[in-house]
Amino acid sequence: xxxxxxxxxxxxxxxxxxxxxxxxxxxxxxxxxxxxxxxxxxxxxxxxxxxxxxxxxxxxxxxxxxxxxxxxxxxxxxxxxxxxxxxxxxxxxxxxxxxxxxxxxxxxxxxxxxxxxxxxxxxxxxxxxxxxx
Length: 133
Hints:
single chain; 133 residues; mainly alpha; two-stranded antiparallel sheet; 2 strands; 56% helix; 11% strand; disordered C terminus
């Protein structure tokens, strides 16, 4: 099958539909950075309760996250599923693209290297991704 024949069944298009909903990629990033609770996501981007609730529900419905509740504790936490976790390589490549191609932050080469290594640790990437850049 030719790649042009995919049209409506394009894996890239399907992935974009999943992560292009506003706030999804930021919440995924925040989960990697250690945020887990509704209030932490809300405070980060000053989202309305409704928008954040809808986004989290979308992410749950699409198996990117799971909501965890604990006995005797009113707090709810969100965690990445394996499907959500597997976005780590996409996040890393977006980070690299922004750093190298868009020159976000105008960082010097030493700082870029330090940031790349920090993101590799945060996103829990293995050595195969390190070989890309």
